[in-house]
Design goal:
165 residues, Rossmann fold
Length: 165
């Protein structure tokens, strides 16, 4: 009988300047981490709109990681503070939707912290594996368009997502 162990699908949005390079460092240093993570490079963690996370979960991801530069070390000045505010709002929204906290994670990792990022990935995979599949897509009530519902959700919380000038 084949091993029926659940293998989660995790989407990771990684900052180009720090976290993506930390993942590269982990790879070149042969630091092993779980292969369950699909990494997407973004220029800054501040560019990760909460709608990206909602979309990933609605399309079948079991978890989402956002990783960026340490606060105060952002190449785009203060965008990781924007990420922190958005992440707090996102966690609140996901909790209201019945999604467990461990399914989304905000991780800081500089370009020199390949081990730290690999450990965070392994830890998140184990946490999500213990939770089991999200199957969020199967839980939608198809009375309305999912994309329109997600767009409305973002519009309702637009003020929390904006960074004052």
């Amino acid at each position: 009988m084949a091993d029926e162990r659940f293998e989660p699908k995790i989407v990771a949005f990684l900052c180009n300047w720090c976290s993506y390079r930390a993942a590269d460092l982990a790879g070149t240093a042969r630091i092993t981490y779980e292969p369950n993570v699909r990494m997407l490079r973004v220029m800054c963690s501040g560019r990760v709109d909460p709608q990206f996370v909602l979309k990933a979960l609605s399309l079948g991801a079991d978890g989402v990681m956002i990783a960026g530069c340490h606060p105060g070390e952002c190449h785009y000045l203060e965008q990781n503070y924007k990420t922190m505010r958005r992440f707090a709002m996102l966690k609140h929204t996901l909790k209201a939707l019945g999604v467990e906290d461990a399914r989304v994670r905000l991780q800081w990792a500089s370009a020199a912290e390949g081990t730290r990022l690999a450990n965070a990935i392994n830890e998140m995979v184990e946490q999500v594996r213990a939770l089991g599949p999200l199957n969020w897509k199967d839980n939608w009530v198809e009375e309305e368009d999912i994309d329109a519902a997600l767009d409305r959700l973002v519009e309702e919380h637009a003020e929390a997502m904006e960074v004052p000038a």
